[in-house]
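Final report, section 2: Outcomes. Of the targets proposed, 6-carboxy-5,6,7,8-tetrahydropterin synthase is the one most frequently requested by collaborating groups, and we therefore present its record in full.
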Amino acid sequence: MSTRIFRLTVDDHIMIAHSLQSPFFGPAQGLHGATLSIHATFERAGLDEHGVVMDIGEATGLLDQALAPLRYANLDERPEFEGTYSTTEKVIEHIAETLTSQLPEGHGLRALEVEAEEHPRARAEVRVELV
Ligand SMILES: Nc1nc2c(c(=O)[nH]1)N=C([C@H](O)[C@H](O)COP(=O)(O)OP(=O)(O)OP(=O)(O)O)CN2
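The predicted structure is given below as tokens.
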């Protein structure tokens, strides 16, 4: 019997400021701003008893909650990124960890993914396997 894998994606964005303080990052060592388009995808094998991966309102709410502390923030001042570089990869890792920790008991999801578009020519993604 075949298994159907369903995915639900919700979108949002954050405006942040940060600096990447290593010569590795060239001019991005200086403080600069970025608008990150964020996409969160929730994945389930089959659908739940309501015929959904999860409620869209719940998904957008979870993403909004995860992004709230980062909106208009200078990431250089945020404890989440202390001692590390607030690269797009680290930002999506943080969002994915926050989303994972916010999922309700018995969510039944198989995985979640977070993608951020840093600019029109670059994006990063992370996938968290939940089972
Ligand atoms: N893997 C990543 N690389 C870089 C990130 C990142 O988040 N992940 N971020 C930056 C900067 O914040 C910015 O987005 C781009 O800065 P820029 O100096 O234009 O960087 P480029 O690598 O595109 O170009 P250079 O040739 O290094 O100037 C940088 N890298």
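The domain at 5-129 is CATH 3.30.479.10 (Tetrahydropterin Synthase; Chain A).
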